[in-house]
Amino acid sequence: MTRALPGSLSELIGFGGVVRVRCRKCKREAEFRAIALADWFKSCGIRDDWKTIRAKFVCDGCGARNAEVTYELDAPDPPKVPPLPRDGDTPLGVDPGLWAAADHYERRRLIRRARN
């Protein structure tokens, strides 16, 4: 599944990302949580598009401006789902005795319980 890349810092918050700032001159790096950085820009009344963000950072080491700003999206782990039962097979994590005595609705409930 592909997603559109965020166009601003406030859009990155919804994806759960990290912002990395790197000085082009001295190669000094810093990492910020997207929500903390967006709150700071909002409290100062500054737009949070990427062009404005790059212009606002000043390196503490050399004083250079126009830093390189990148971001990484947090990739959630795929959910662990036990395999669905085949004809007569009991799914993993479900008691075979309960499975044999259950009707269609109860089997769906047992599968949901086993997945969590």
Notes on the protein architecture:
- It is built from 5 helices and 3 strands.
- The mean pLDDT is 82.
- The chain starts with 8 loop residues before the first helix and ends with a helix.
- It has helices at 9-15, 34-44, 50-56, 96-101, 104-115, and strands spanning 17-22, 29-33, 68-73.
- It has 2 domains: 9-73, no CATH class; 77-116, no CATH class.
- The protein has a 3-stranded antiparallel β-sheet with strand order 2-1-3.
- 9% of the residues are buried.
- 37% of the residues lie in helices and 15% in strands.
- It is rod-shaped, with a radius of gyration of 24 Å.
- It is of the alpha+beta class and 116 residues long.
Question: Which class best fits the helix and strand makeup?
Answer: alpha+beta
Helix content: 25-40%
- Tell how many strands the DSSP assignment holds: 3
The percentage of residues in β strands lies in 5-15%
